[in-house]
Amino acid sequence: MKRFFSLCLLLLIGLVGCTPSLVPTSTLYIKGRVQIKVGDTTILTASEADIIWESLNESIATVSDGGVVEGKSVGTTFIRASLTNSAAVFDQVTLEVIPSNIDIPDDDDPIFNPDEVNVKLGIDLIDNYLDLFEGKRVGLITNPTGINSEYVSTIDILNDKVNLVALYSPEHGIRGDLQAGAGLGTYTDEKTGLPVYSLYGSTLHPTEAMLSGIDIMCIDLQDAGARYYTFVYTMAYAMEECAKYDIEFVVFDRPNPIGGAQYEGNILDTAYSSFIGLYPIIQRHGLTIAELAMLFNEEFGLNVTLYTILMEGWDRRYYYDDTQLPWVIPSPNFPSIETAIVYPGTCVFEGTNLSEGRGTTIPFQVIGAPYIDADDYATALNDLDLPGVVFRPAYFTPTFSKYVNELCAGVQVHVTNRAIFQPVKTGWAMIDVVRNLYPSDFEILSASKNRNTMDLLTGGRFITLDTYTLAEQFTLLESDTELFNATRMEYLLYPYPSIE
Q1: Which end of the chain offers a freer environment for a tag, N or C, measured as fewer CB atoms within 10 Å?
Q2: Predicted model pTM
Q3: Closest among 275, 278, 206 to 245, alpha carbons compared
Q4: Cβ of 307: how many Cβ atoms within 10 Å?
């Protein structure tokens, strides 16, 4: 076992043996820059005067009296301010320390000039890698998101340039025409005449027969940037099987739609490993699909011969709508970047008796049920003063999934500041508030069953069992976020831009 897993175990033991008692409150909050360079200092200020400052990892950053923070090494930690006479009243911010040669813009300046953005996808650069495919029979895992920046399908590109002999379909089908959970057997693609093998439903792992006709497997899929999304585990299972039969594996890289700079979540307990969370990673991993492939291959022993065809011009700070690339919905309930931004948090409502907005035009952005008072729910959530988000009372009637043709009341999640929005904390807070407001109505689906949907999505059983207070849940998230980043940093293929 690598050090990563040992640290996870120690953290879990610590959480079980010591229950945090700190309670965040909006009466104390911290203001100031939360990104600095190694060797630089910044001053944080608190809304109260009599404060004790603390860095949760002094090897990354220190903080002295007066809120003076100094960056010591590259990484992420948390700076906490608590009242001198009441440690239970505190606020803390995530502090990122970046290399000294990276430019940090002024607060009022844009991070980048949109007119200068020119991102080329991995598939755009195929001509530079044709030698890799020469003389080989090629398989391709893809769906409608597999296109180049000129809207040309990766299927057509490879069919023209290499010896493409088979297609492999993830959840939702090769043409994206299936709802979540729908199965699909083997069939022939009408346009190309190639066989299409389903990697969803009863056959998650490609079989030896499916792979017998290829020498090299490719994948070109748009990931969602969240641990729950099944496409990355289709990739992982394919990598695992290709390794068994000495088949090479190629990833055409694509942007993480919610950027590669921010990350947040708890590390999945492998007792709750599933196709919606296979490995001990965090919900918002902040990695591209190629970076995930490298991490999976090395950390989890897949051992396939792996090639990554990287993008050009992609910046870790870019959200997908910063790239000027065409957006194709990766799955039927994933229509927009706004969906992607909230998805790492609100997806957990799939494990409850609230609608997560499936059957509406804004899935995962509206959350509700017939038993909720929209104004009460929105007020309680806004009172938490969560960063970068406002909750608006909302009403909707799903056309499918939960509460078909029933009026649901709840909230719409409006992200007001992407830079500080924390989707996982937000989703967990939304669960906690509705559970407290409606204890007789709110339900975790199949709560008595171990490994229910909530368990699998959250990577543990603590939310199902209501083990921790919300403050304790936040402490878990913060600790695991920092812990996972130590491993994550080893697989970053795209650094922050340097000063020219």
Answers
A1: C
A2: 0.80
A3: 206
A4: 16
pLDDT at 426 over 80: yes
Report the top-level CATH class of 123-330. alpha beta
CA neighbours within 13 Å on the CB side: how many for 268? 26
- Based on its alpha-carbon atoms, the radius of gyration of the chain, rounded to whole angstroms, reads 23
3-109 belongs to which CATH class?
A: mainly beta
The runs of H, that is alpha helices, within 347-382 are 374-382
Q: Which of 381, 405, 384 is nearest to 393 (CA)?
A: 381
C-beta of residue 158 within 8 angstroms of C-beta of residue 164: yes
> 235 and 196 in contact (C-beta within 8 Å)?
no
CATH topology of domain 337-467: Aspartate Aminotransferase, domain 1 (3.90.1150)
**Burial of residue 443, with CB atoms counted within 10 A of its CB: 0-12 exposed, 13-18 middle, 19 or more buried:** middle
* Cα distances (Å, whole numbers) of residue 36 to 46, 262, 483: 18, 15, 20
**Spatial contact of 431 and 349, defined as CB atoms under 8 Å apart:** yes
One-letter identity of residue 61: A
Report how far residue 176's alpha carbon sits from residue 337's, in angstroms, rounded to the nearest whole number.
Answer: 18
Segment 109-158, tens digit of pLDDT: 455 677 789 999 999 999 999 999 999 999 999 999 999 999 999 999 99
287-326 confidence digits (pLDDT tens) = 999 999 999 999 999 999 999 999 999 999 899 999 999 9
What are the residue boundaries of the structural domains of the chain, listed by start?
3-109, 123-330, 337-467
Run of H or E residues at 137: strand 137-142
Instruction: Give me the residue label for tokens 């959250």.
Output: 458
Phi, psi of 38 (to 5 degrees): -60, 130
Say if residue 498's pLDDT is above 90: no
- CB-based contacts of 376, cutoff 8 Å, min separation 6: 437
